[in-house]
Amino acid sequence: MPELLRPDPPRSWLERLAAARAAVDPARLAVTVGVVLLLTAGGWWLLRPARAPVEDALPRAGPGAAGEPPAASVGSLPSPPSVAAAEVVVQVAGAVDKPGVYHLADGSRVMDLITAAGGPAADADLQAMALASRLTDGQRVQVPHQGEVLPSTATGAAPAGATGSGVTPAAPIDLNTASEADLDALPGVGPTTARAIVAYRDAHGPFHEVDDLTDVQGIGPARLDALRELVKV
Q: pTM of the full predicted structure?
């Protein structure tokens, strides 16, 4: 009886570990571990920090002055090319160093065209020119030689109230001495008709009267009436 009431002798830790292993069910231990891992993973998923919205990952323009467009970032579309400055295409003929067609800035004057053509010739009559007149696209300017009389439209003049090429010249030009350039400057007479007038004069001799122009190919009664006050023989 005294032996039954006597406490068990103390056991070493190895004996206690072996006893604990014998008391634990391996299948129950595996289930317990799985439940703990599942709860841990679920807690991490619920408590994880929220992801930043997609918009926060996009590039942002840096600060700038009010009303100033943001600076272009890498990969942005290139800026559109600047619009070319306006220009006029004009022709100069007659008493200049380099006659021809020139491209000048819009707003240029007759004197600017003469300068672009190398300047006036030694016998140029600049006093007969409207040097300050503004050039228009497609205009043809004839610089006269000394003693040469040209229509005002040929020398760049633009009298008030005049429109297009229908400006009355300062003095009628002589059909028998006028050059192709002189005739081309007349309203309604282009290079082809001017060439035809000179060719007719070379083939048939001088004109005897203005009405003889109807014998030139391309000149009918209507065009003759438009030229009657602008030419002479």
A: 0.37
CATH number for the 172-233 domain, one of 1.10.150.320, 2.30.30.210, 1.10.390.10, 3.90.950.20? Answer: 1.10.150.320
Phi, psi of 20 (to 5 degrees): -65, -40
How far is the CA of 88 from the CAs of 100, 106, 108, in angstroms?
A: 14, 5, 8
**226: how many CB neighbours lie within 10 A of its CB?**
15
| Residue pLDDT, tens place only, 47-88 | 777 666 655 666 665 555 455 555 554 555 555 555 556 899
Could you tell me the two tokens for 11?
Answer: 């056991």
d(CA 36, CA 16): 25
The b/e string for 81-104 (b: 16+ C-beta within 10 A; e otherwise) is eeeeeeebebbbbbbbeebeebeb
Say which DSSP state 157 is in. Answer: -
Structure-token match 């004057």, residue found: 109
Closest C-alpha to 159, from 139, 133, 138 = 133
Q: Which H or E run includes 29?
A: helix 26-47
